Every structure is written in structure tokens, then in C-alpha cells.
Amino acid sequence: MARTKRGAAALCSLHHVIDLDWMMEAYRLTRKDGASGIDGVTAADYEVNLEANLLDLLDRIKSGRYRAPPVRRAYIPKADGSQRMLGIPTFEDKVAQRAVTMVLEDIYEQDFLPCSYGFRPGRSAHQALRALQNVLWAKRLYWVLDIDIRKYFDSIPHSHLRTFLDQRVTDGVIRRMIDKWLKAGAVEDGLLRYTTEGSPQGGVISPCLSNIFLHYVLDEWFETEVKPRLRGECTLVRYADDALMAFDNIVDAKRVLSVLGKRLARYGLTLHPDKTRLVDFRPKRLQGARHPETDGTTFDFLGLTHVWGRSRNGKEMVRQVTAKGRFARAVAAVNDWCRQHRHWSIRDQHRHLSSMMRGHFAYYGVGGNSRRLRWFANQVVRVWRKWLSRRDRQGVVLWTHFNELLARHPLPPVRILHGYAAASETLP
Q: What are phi and psi of 301, to 5 degrees?
């Protein structure tokens, strides 16, 4: 066991913790409903001889005979019209990645800083949103630096990632497995393509390695080098590659913005020139002439737009409401589903639409967002009626008839599940 320059232990013997029980737990935590990889093996197929398959996988991992299969590449549309590249590993590879990720999590959870929330055990997006609201509202850090790293997951240089891993993990088995995933490549249109940058696509090891990379590049740098050099108070909130910095004065915010791009470029990353911006988030009563260096007075973070509103007792407070793009995407998903499944029975349609609405409320059900939740519920009702009318030979389903249907099959009511913000119902 060696010591790094920061004093933390570089662990050189880790693979002994990976045994059959460890692999069983990795299998249990692996999603069983995902798409199959290039071998076509599903979770049900793998489970037929589960113990034998896991023992064989364990032996290949520890002996070095395991060969990481390339991922199957797929694309999904993004809100801005572009496409997001995805990788679909084989099911066995997902189990192997989960086993190694469990080891890395036990090591790095004691290193990661409180400002990091994404893809960490016991930490969630809503914890990040609550922390951000507190610093904006209670600490009055009104100058917000909205950071967007261009194609982050596809741009991580493998050489820098290996250097960071050297500081904490030098176990040969673990590092050999990580290298195999970095070199595995992807199959697209029947062709195998390799890359020298980017995290392994689609598997659980990818967000873990990405967190490790930004821990050194952004989190530690901000806490140890940036904060001590600034005049006022500041904070960083990061969820995976979505990051915001908040400052109590514009001078500090401009100083950090001027060096942030250079810091990321040093490690092969690039700030998105259009999406990275400095926001003047002061309440309206404090805003004078708009600073030419700022861009807007509201910002989005994790699907929620942050605006100023008033609490029930009339005090100013930060509100988080569903971002317009996310709202439109949610309604479009409901419309597409109703169009494709309008031949289903009313009972089955009701069951699935109820599930979609509960999922929407589970994430966007933040205090102060009830108006946009009601808008979504109303849109679901209108979309459902529209597509039921398309399949009815008599034409449009009258509202009186449809209301009778809703009385027999009521949709879920609007629910606030994250009540850390109690705001009025009037949008600012």
C-alpha cells in the first residue's frame, strides 16, 4: 500500500473482496429489464445457471481471461434536436461492471466532497436541488455561474483518468478490468470502432469513473485553490456533469469564469460557449441596470427552472418549477404513447397513464410547482381524450362521456412529494 502526494493511501490489494457473495450482490443490483447487448443474452437467460455463470465470470476476472465485449451503440433524440449517443453492454458485462463499481464506491465515497451529488449512494438530485436553493435563498449567493461541459462523457481523456486512478487504486485486477472497458469500443452499423477518450458507454462504471475525474478536475480545485483566493462566499453544486457555482459578488464570479475554461482545457475538456453563462439571479427589488457580462435572470438545473417567487406569508423565496423543455417533452411522451397504444383497453391505458403521471409527480413534485403539475395533469386528460376520439367510430368523445370515464377510472391527483419549498401559487 503506497502513499500519494495528498497523503491518501493508494490501495494495491483490492480484488480479494470480490467473491461469489460479492458477485451475487452485483447481480442483484443490476437492472434486469434493460436491452440486451451484442450477444443477445437477457437477464432471464443468464439466470438459468446463475451460480455457475457467476463463478465462471469471477474466475475470468481474477485470472485476466475476461474480455470486455464492445457495446452496442444506439442513439436517442435530445431536446435541442441533436442525438445522444448510448452504449448497451451485454448483461454479463453489466454484472462485472457493477462488481468493480462497488469496490470503487467503497474507496471514493470517503474522498468525494459534499458538493457532489450525482450517482452516489444515498445522494439524490433533490438533495442537490435543496442545497442549491438554500445557498441562493438563505446565503444570498445571487451571482450564478451555469457550467456546461461540451460532450463530457465522450471527451474524458483516458491518460488523465488513469493518472487520477493511480492516486487511489493500483490493484492489478481492478485496473486491468477498467482498462479493458476503456478499450472495448462500440459496434455501430456492423463496424467496430475504438476510442481513446470518453468513459465506457452505458454501464454503471461510466458515471463512477466520470465522478472520479471531475472530483479531481473541478471539485478539489474549487475547494482547495479557488475558494481561498476569493473575497466573498461561494459554493459549488454538482450532479454528474451538471454543475453550478454561486457567488455573493460579481467580481469573484467573473474571475472564476475567466480561468475555468483554462482549467478544463488542461484536462481535455471544453466549456460549451453558448450554454455556459453568468446569471444575475438577484431578486427584482435588488436589480438595477443589467450587467453586460451576465446572461439572463433565471436558470435551469436538473430539469427545474429557478425563479423568484413569494412564500405563503409574502416573503421572497427561490422557487423551482418544471423547465419548459422538460414539460414539453413529458407531454410529447404522453401523446406518443397514447397514439401508439390507442387500441389498448381503457383499463390498460389508464394503468399506464397513471404510472406515467406518478413518475412525473415523483420528480417534479416540488413545493411551489403545483401549478405546472396541474398543467401537466390537464394536458394528460386532453391528450387521452383526443386519442380515444380517434379510435371511436362516432367521432369525438364528448366531455360529458369522458368525465364519466374519468369518474370510473380516476387519474392520480397532483402531489407534492418534496416539500422543502412552500411557495405561493402565483408565478412571478
A: -150, 120
Structure-derived torsion over alpha carbons of residues 167, 173, 176, 178, reported in degrees to the nearest 10:
-70
Q: What is the pTM of this model?
A: 0.88
Burial environment of residue 230 by CB neighbours within 10 A (0 to 12, 13 to 18, 19 or more): middle
**Please, is 368 exposed, middle or buried when counting C-beta atoms within 10 Å of its C-beta (0-12, 13-18, 19+)?**
buried
How confident is the model over 106-164, as pLDDT tens digits? 999 999 999 999 999 999 999 999 999 888 888 889 999 999 999 898 899 999 999 99
Percentage helix, strand, coil for the chain under 3-state DSSP, each rounded to 5: 45, 15, 35
Strand 143-147 and strand 242-247: the pairing is antiparallel
Give strand pairing partners of 3. Answer: 9
Between the CA of residue 420 and those of 39, 47, 319, 358, 424, what are the distances in Å?
46, 42, 10, 19, 13
Query: 286, exposed or middle or buried, with CB in 10 Å at 0-12, 13-18, 19+?
Result: exposed
pLDDT digits (tens, 9 = 90+) for 221-275: 999 999 999 999 999 999 999 999 999 999 999 999 999 999 999 999 999 999 9
Within 10 angstroms of residue 249's Cβ, the number of other Cβ atoms is: 16
Cell numbers at 312, concatenated: 405563503
Using CA atoms, how far apart are residues 365 and 359, in angstroms rounded to an integer?
10
Cell numbers given for 146:
451555469
